[in-house]
Amino acid sequence: MMFREIAGRSRRVKRLATTTTLTLAAQSAVGVMLVHAFTADVAFAQAAEQAPDPDAIVVTARRREESLQNAPVAVAALTGAKLNQYVVVNVSDLAKFVPGMVVGKQVTGSSASIFLRGVGSSSLSAGFDQSVSFNIDGIAMSRGREIGLAQYDLRSVQVMKGPQALFFGKNATGGVIAVDSNNPGNKFEGSLSAGYGFQGNETYVDGYLSGPLTDTLGARFAFHANNTEGYFRNTAGTAADMLQQAAEPNNAFVRDPTDSRRGASKSAAGRLTLLYKPNDALTMNLKMSGNYYTDNGASDLYERKCAAGRTIPAATSGAAAPFADCQIDGRSDHARLPVEVARTMRYTRADGKPYTKLVSGSSVLNTQYETEPVDITSITAFYGFRQTSGDDMNGQTRAIWNSQKSTMKQFSEELRAGTKFDGPVNFTVGAYYAHVDFTYNIDSYTNVAPLDPVTQTYATLGRNSGFKGETWSGFFEAILTPTPELEISGGARYSHESKNSYEQFLPENSRYASVYSQNLLVNDKYREANLSPQATIRWKPSDAVTAYAAYKEGFKAGGYNISQVFLASTTLASALANGRFGAETARGFEGGIRTTLLGRSLHFNVTAYRYKYADLQVQFYNPQTLSQSVANAGALRVQGIESDFTYRVPGVRGLDFHGSLAYNDAEYQGFIGQCYAGQTFSLGCNQLRNAAGIYNGQIFSGRTPPKAPKLGAQFGSTLEVPVSGDIRATFTGDVTYSSKYNYTDTLRPDAVQNRFARVDASVAVGNEAQGWRLSLIGRNLTDKLVVTSANDMTFTGGTGTGSTTAPSVLADLNAVVERGREIYLEARFKF
Questions:
Q1: Which of 100, 183, 94 is nearest to 138 (CA)?
Q2: C-alpha torsion sign, points 454, 458, 461, 466
Q3: pLDDT value, residue 622
Q4: What gap in Å lies between CA 280 and CA 268, rounded to an integer?
């Protein structure tokens, strides 16, 4: 039997209607107008020969292959070819092509900040699930560290927006990023590419080998490796400068600068895919991958942004910061931890240099058994990682240091059975199970103290924490097609979540026994169940038009915050009360029109949505107590309109245009949250007064949540022209725009990313017949340094918080910054 490939699967605009009824009415009106406007083209499409659409993008948003134009789901899909045009190898880069999506690492390096339509999770707490989760080759992931994994040799990336309950294993409230890698084909082939990035002295190489081993077995091996010396500049002073500044009060240690560049990293990754098809009924697809990543610290991603327009950095515990500036300009000071301190702390390098080391691996077996009445699918997966790091959190002149080790092991199994009866009714049923074992241990050096003679450490505090969790869920969907034009589907997922969490503070430096707990151990058991229904109506009057409306719900389990700081006064009861948080749920409507026009040369789509999130899980960092708190907000309402188009110019080979526009109106409701550091009564910290007369809360109701730009847009074009013989040149250009947004969880008024536009472009010359291509790639040519998230900088202010009389001293900010302009030269060979 011949082996064959099997696919693995800015101005403010008028507010949207504020009731579900009005929203659905508006969607219906838009649909009617579009259908009437395109009547002539529909008739043309019905009369034309029904040849395959050459520009159709295949998606698996409903775990079945279908054209993007037919899928009744809000999804942004990017092909592997599109990602290769701009050297996109991580999720942070991917976000630049999805309007309204904001992605970045956290300052601590423990996780990520992922927001879509203003819904997301900052993940300051290491045990916190993401509202926007990942699904990589069928493995459901929700820790956030996945943004650090290299993504290469991809078939597609699909960003499903809004609640996702039925199709991707674990329930998600904000959306799912689904990554599908390539499978072996029915012929031998390979590719090798190498590139150089000029700004960061970056080199990379990737490639694959693929083909049939027998008539029934195919294999594909893909790999990627990267090395960069660092994009940003380190402005730390010399050892002589440090001695003059007396940087460590009451301590003779001198903190030498690290490398002259910031953001240096190395990575290597490989994936082996085996595709076995002994007969027409059975297909088994095994993917095994490993990733290695190391850098010179998560701190190299951030810059100090001074508070309230100050031009001089705030002192850290009395120590000035002469080597830092107050600008987002790609410059900040970073230094190693004094080696005398480093050698006494867990997980810190003996030389005291900041670093991150992440090793991860996964294996997933996707088995499909196709019979005449029923298709059965099994996805068995294992995923795990081990990360250690040591990070300089406040610049060179005062050591505020955090070192950590986190590990995770996850096993999951998903079973699905779907009927394919000839009649109008079909069903899909299934079950999902996952077991997670997660640990997160830290040591922190935050206050100057002598060596503890008993514990033999300079560390201020230490903590061991983690959890073991289980997810059981079952789902059901019925699909009714009473006519060829109409499809009605509905179902639900029942989920049961359990977590057994623990957190214990360790006896570190006895100098601070009166400040931090030394031995408190907390064990917490969390149990919760949920039923999330979903219903969709899809109407397809012709091949040219698809309209749909859907009601969806989503669920994200609660748990216990394992990243609390226990003060000496903390009791078991208060730790449990402050650490527990409830589930986050979402419900709402969306609807859209998908059109294929002008003889299939134009695809134009519009989607409208309105969702309400109840008990939204939010996180805050208190820079005075070093505590990371988790709470449930009252509600978040998001509503908006999104549109996109692709246009292939008829009669002009290789010329196309594409674009997207997203308007999102997000608003907190019924929510009183934590004040920012230094926010006094007069500045709005006027809620939740304690017995001492200090206020602890501010009103968030009616305000836009963080990382929620109201307007996002993208426009681009590709042009392919002949050069000589079979040699052709390809020109691409894309402009991405985002309106302003606040990048702090506490909505500090001085923490706003102003509106910006990025320009990406590339030119490639190649010969497809001979299999070679040479590309010059420019990313962010407008050189915009964009802040994706920020937290108050420890011990740099924050006094006067909640006071009616004390003056305000705002803390400086640790701002995580994306790279500016990047230029790459790449050569690719295919055989």
A1: 183
A2: negative
A3: 65
A4: 37
> Looking at the domain assignment, is residue 713 inside a domain?
yes
User: Given strand 112-116, what is the order of strands in its sheet?
Assistant: 101-105, 112-116, 119-121
pLDDT for 375? 94
The CA angle 305-307-312, to the nearest 5 degrees, is 75
- The whole-chain average pLDDT of the chain stands at 86
Strand partners, 335: 257
Segments in the chain below pLDDT 50: 1-51, 244, 246-252
Using DSSP, state whether 818 is helix, strand or coil. Answer: coil
Residues 6+ apart with CB under 8 A from 342: 336, 348, 349, 350, 351, 352, 390
Tell me what pLDDT residue 43 has: 38
What are the helix (H) ranges across 78-140? 80-85, 91-94
pTM for the model = 0.88
pLDDT at 585: 94
Does a structural domain hold residue 723? Answer: yes
Q: What is the span of the domain harbouring residue 436?
A: 20-403+412-830
Q: Are 142 and 136 in contact (CB under 8 A)?
A: no
Nearest to 110 by CA among 129, 126, 130: 126
Question: What is the CB-side half-sphere exposure of residue 682 using CA atoms within 13 A?
Answer: 6
Asked whether the beta carbons of 357 and 388 are under 8 A apart, the reply is: yes
Residue 195 lies in a domain: yes
Q: What is the CA radius of gyration of the chain?
A: 27
Residue 30 DSSP SS3: helix
Predicted confidence at residue 779, as pLDDT, reads: 94
What is the spatial distance between Cα 758 and Cα 738, in angstroms, rounded to a whole number? 9
Q: What is the pLDDT of residues 798-831, one digit of tens each?
A: 888 888 888 888 989 989 899 999 999 999 999 9
pLDDT at residue 335 in the model:
86
How far is Cα 831 from Cα 769, in angstroms, rounded to an integer? Answer: 10
Domain count along the chain: 1
- Give the whole-angstrom CA distance, residue 137 versus residue 582: 30
Q: What is the CATH number of the domain that holds 618?
A: 2.40.170.20
∠ Cα 211 89 116 (to 5°): 120
Tokens of 599: 């003889």
Q: Does 1 fall in a domain?
A: no
Q: How far apart are CA 440 and CA 392, in angstroms?
A: 18
